[in-house]
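Please predict the structure of the following assembly.
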Amino acid sequence: MNSEYSAGFVTEIDSETLPAGLDESVVRFISAKNNEPQWLTDWRLKAYAGWCAMTPPEWGQVRFPPIDFQAISYYSAPKSMADGPTSLDEVDPELVRTYEKLGIPLHEQEILAGVVKGPEARVAVDVVFDSVSIATTFKEKLAESGVIFCPISEAVAEHPELVQKYLGSVVPRKDNFYAALNSAVFSDGSFVYIPKGVRCPMELSTYFRINEQNTGQFERTLIIAEAGSYVSYLEGCTAPMRDENQLHAAVVELVAMEDAEIKYSTVQNWYPGDKNGKGGIYNFVTKRGACLGDRSKISWTQVETGSAITWKYPSVVLRGDSSVGEFYSVALTNNYQQADTGTKMIHIGRNTKSTIISKGISAGHSQNTYRGMVRITPGADGARNYTQCDSLLIGGASGAHTFPYIESQNTTAIVEHEASTSKVSDDQLFLCQQRGIDTEKAVSMIVNGFCKAVFRELPMEFAVEAGKLLEVSLEGAVG
Amino acid sequence: MSLLEVVDLHVTVADQQILKGLNLRINSGEVHALMGPNGSGKSTLANVLAGRPGFVITRGSVRFDGENLAELKPEERAQRGLFLAFQYPVEIPGVSNMEFLKASLDSLHAARGQDLLSTMEFVKAVRRIAEELDLAEEFLKRGVNEGFSGGEKKRNEILQLLLLQPRLAVLDETDSGLDIDALQVVAAGINRYRAADNGVLIITHYQRLLNYIVPDVVHVLTDGQIVKSGGKELALDLDEKGYGWVTA
């Protein structure tokens, strides 16, 4: 049986794509393409210099041949975008059709028509196609409440003081190999700013799409929530089915001030490769949030079903007193997929609290690793962490691994860790079958039950989507 | 035509011959009790009827409503109306009892081309049955058999029986591990299920369940064959004299 990857089509559009290879001139080219100020060009060049001196990390529980970074193109943009469309009507119709195929409503009217559950159920969408941002919806509506939601390239031009202040403040340029690469060559991404005391009136969402062959995607997301504000943000990702591996190295930075809350959800469905492990996206991503203010809160929820290899650890640095970090994760691997994912919770402020709920599901010949760090620094009096880490195995050829790191330097801290590994048993499947439920449906039901604690954290519309995604990703896992 | 017709059934489990030429015919409206010592093959019969993997028919045939069961997947047998109440019901954590029951009922209805129950109709039906079985509301929201006591698990099987209304119910030691109160509740549930157009096969060690559910036919299974069949009084004789009396 074949697992059907429904987002695996290629869009035929004219693109401007840089030849493969990376050197200073490429970095300068990208910066010039975006009409960036000198400070950002310099910032990129420093990142590039740092990257040149670094080597790829090798500690992950993932195996793949070395990546030739000179064989990748670092910039690709749909050609029709070159002159900058002023409205959606000027966007290549092929592109619009692509997003329709993906079920992303680009037209604001469609969004309004499609979701009639009151104003808070509306979703504003930013779309990043290969390297550039295509369309951001609901901008005016958001602006009324002072919310800025735009491509980061636009934020550089229009809100330079914010970008300059916070870019790299959470994930430094030389944080790690892939973050340094991203800092040098990122071409676009989303920027969000929520002013003091504002509760963002709708869900914000970005859809990422890799289309071109032999290109990497390096987007950069920056979200700033001022004191007492709230925002819920969701990203979705897909890519065509291609035989070659493609690199995706994103950086996401979140900043939460006093009493602010950021809820960041990801439904990652990059192309996972075929059933023999050929092709698929290398998803090497750095995501980190800083709870700078007292009582601030950052919550990561991720549903990871795609990518040939996933390497990501959405983390929270808990600086403000009584700040809260959460990580809810479902990572599903099938066939020959590999995932090494988890989180870091760094407790610095007093009475800081973190919760980690991780659900790993391994089917086929896949390898699924949870890697998580909880660090309590000396000043973090009264810090608390609760970690629950469960693995579910389907079939006999997959692997589940858990690497928890706990470093506590404060005796008043309480750190709890629970872990379990279970198997979808033949008896469970037989019980379902005996009640008339076929095995595919049974596996999906059992896996969804296993993930319930995480799905509860997703915005309603996406919880349903996530459940369906698991079902599709598991096709052929049993039988 | 009989509901179930088993002819000269030979079954191996892990290359071991367990059933060695078993014959059994159950007609609509009949309740049969299958008794026998440990290891005689009672549960093997239940499992092979339901199609559990690992139970291999090496000779003979099983027909359900005239259809050859060996050619059907377990879920297809269920969809045709064959129900097995498990001896050891497994837990499915995180999947609520309600959700499971709905998925089951919907699958059966869909396979038969029947209309699915609306959520409201469904909830009403389940609540009514749960009440009859003395199962609290909270119990329906918990994961399937998750943290249930032995007695609760068995009552949950009967709940499924009454909700799904199969054509043939095979009850594999449903009475084991039940105290006398639970036994009566379970027996009452099975009696409520009994009807002219369905059949019941009760597999049990003990005669006591048969005080509450009066069978039409009692069979004694030893060493993979039915060695004696009779009316309800046979169960009483067995209780008094033991299985040795039959095989001697």
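Chain A is about 25% helix and 35% strand. The CA atoms of residues 35 and 50 of chain A lie 23 Å apart.
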